[in-house]
Amino acid sequence: MKIMKRSDLSSLRRSVDQGTEEQRRSVQRIIQEVKENGDQSVKTYTEQFDGADIVNWRVTQDEFDEAYMSIDGGFVEILEEAAANIRSFHEKQRTTSWFETSEDGTILGQKVTPIAAVGVYVPGGTAAYPSSVFMNVIPAQVAGVKRIVIVTPPGKDGKVPAGVLVAAQLLGVDHVYKAGGAQAIAALAYGTETIAPVDKITGPGNVYVALAKREVFGDVDIDMIAGPSEIAVLADHTAKAEEVAADLLSQAEHDARSSSVLVTTDESLAEGVRTAVYEQLRSLPRYNIAKASIDEYGAIIVCDTKPEALDTINEMAAEHLEIVTENPFQDMAQVNHAGAIFLGPYSSEPVGDYFAGPNHVLPTSGTARFSSPLTVDDFVKKSSIISYSEQALQKNADKIAQFSRLEGLEAHARAIESRKERWK
C-alpha cells in the first residue's frame, strides 16, 4: 500500500472497463443469437458459461420454499429489517405530478408515470448478493413499477443462492430466472418465449454484463455502466488506525481492481493504517483478491493542510467517502463530489451497503462529479403538460411565430398563425 502525495493521485485512476475487442464481439454475437433464437440460445449459453443444464429456467415456488426453509430464521429477520429501512428511505424520494394555472388560462405541469417493466440483474459467481435485490427492486416498487423481473446466474447444480431467493420472496417478486451474462441482458432487452421484454435494466455484473448493457442501451434504458468499487477515507488524529484499515479492506475484497484510499494530514495515522491493513489482510478469506487490490490500487495520500485534503477528496469523486474527523459534518459541507458520504467513526461503509436505507448502487470511476446514486426517480418518466387557452395563445402568437422564423422553421410559424382565424 503506497504512501504518496496528492500529485501522484492520477496513478490510481481507473476508467470503466471497456473490454477487449474480442469481448465486445462475443457480446454482440450472443445478443444477436438471443434475438434470433430466444430461449434456446439462453439455455445453450447457460450450459457453456455456467455449466448448468437448465430445463425450466424460471424459479418455481418449490425452489422459493426450499430456499426459505434453508435460511436461518434470525437471518430472515435481519433481511426484513434491512428491507424496511431501505423502503422507508426511498419512500421519501417519491415525486408526484404537479400542475399550475395562470390567470390567462394557461395550464402547465409535469406528469410522473412509472416505467412499466424493469429487469434486475443480480450477480452470481464468487458471492451472492441479496442486497442487490433490495437496492434495485425496492426503489422500483416505490416508484410504482408493475412488472419486475430478476435474472441471476445459476450454480452448476442449477440452483440460485438461497439468500437471493429469500430476498426476492420477501419483496413479492416471483419472476426470477436462472440466467446470467450477456444472454440474460439480451433476454431482458428483446424478450424470449419465456421472458417478455422490459423497458429498463439495472444491476451490477462482470465485464460481459456491462458490455451487454452498453449494447442494448437505446432499445432499453439502463442504470449505469459501473466500474470497480472504491472507497476514500478522510481521517485525522481522532480516527483509529485499525478501524480505518478495516474499512479500506471492506472494499478491497470486492475486486482486484477495487480502490481503497486514505487521505489524511496525520503522518502517524498514515503509518498506523498501512501497518494495520497488512496485519488484517492476512486473515481475510478473500486474501488474494484483497491483496491484489491493496497492492495495485490501495494508497495513503498525506496532505500538508486540511484544505488540500478536501481538494484531494473532491478530485477523487469517490463512490464511497468516509469522513472520520473531529468535525465530520463541517468537513462534509466542503465536499462536492461523492456517491455516498459516511460521517463519523460509527458509520462504517457496510452500514450503507446493507442496512441503513440509502441505495448502494453508486457512481464509480470519478463519475460522482456528475452522477447520483440509484433513486426512485430512475424508475419513473416525466411528461411535460402544456395547455394554452385562447387568450394565452392570442397574447403570445406573434412572439412564437417570430421565434420560429428566427430558427428558419416556417412551418412552425404557420402552425401558430393558422389559429388566428379563430379570433378575427
Write the layout of secondary structure elements.
Layout: E1 2-4, H1 21-37, H2 39-50, H3 61-70, H4 73-91, E2 98-101, E3 107-114, E4 117-121, H5 130-143, E5 147-152, H6 162-170, E6 176-178, H7 181-190, E7 200-202, H8 207-216, E8 221-222, E9 230-235, H9 241-252, E10 259-264, H10 267-281, H11 287-297, E11 298-302, H12 306-316, E12 320-324, H13 328-332, E13 340-343, H14 349-354, E14 380-387, H15 390-406, H16 410-417
Parallel strand pairs: 1-11, 4-5, 4-7, 5-6, 7-8, 9-10, 9-12, 10-11, 12-13
Antiparallel strand pairs: 2-3, 3-14
Question: Helix and strand string, N-terminal first?
Answer: EHHHHEEEHEHEHEHEEHEHHEHEHEHEHH
Biggest beta-sheet profile: 6 strands, parallel
According to CATH, the homologous superfamily of the largest domain is Nitrogenase molybdenum iron protein domain
Mean pLDDT across the residues is 94
Q: Would you identify the CATH architecture of the largest domain? A: 3-Layer(aba) Sandwich
The helix content is 40-55%
Principal-axes shape call:
globular
3D architecture notes:
It is globular, with a radius of gyration of 25 Å. The mean pLDDT is 94. It folds into three domains: 2-14 and 227-356, 3-Layer(aba) Sandwich (Rossmann fold), CATH 3.40.50; 21-222, Rossmann fold (3-Layer(aba) Sandwich); 388-423, no CATH class. Strands 1-11-10-9-12-13 form a six-stranded parallel β-sheet, sandwiched between helices. The chain has helices at residues 21-37, 39-50, 61-70, 73-91, 130-143, 162-170, 181-190, 207-216, 241-252, 267-281, 287-297, 306-316, 328-332, 349-354, 390-406, 410-417; strands at residues 2-4, 98-101, 107-114, 117-121, 147-152, 176-178, 200-202, 221-222, 230-235, 259-264, 298-302, 320-324, 340-343, 380-387. It contains 16 helices and 14 strands. 44% of the residues lie in helices and 16% in strands. Helix 7 runs parallel beside helix 8. It is an alpha/beta fold.
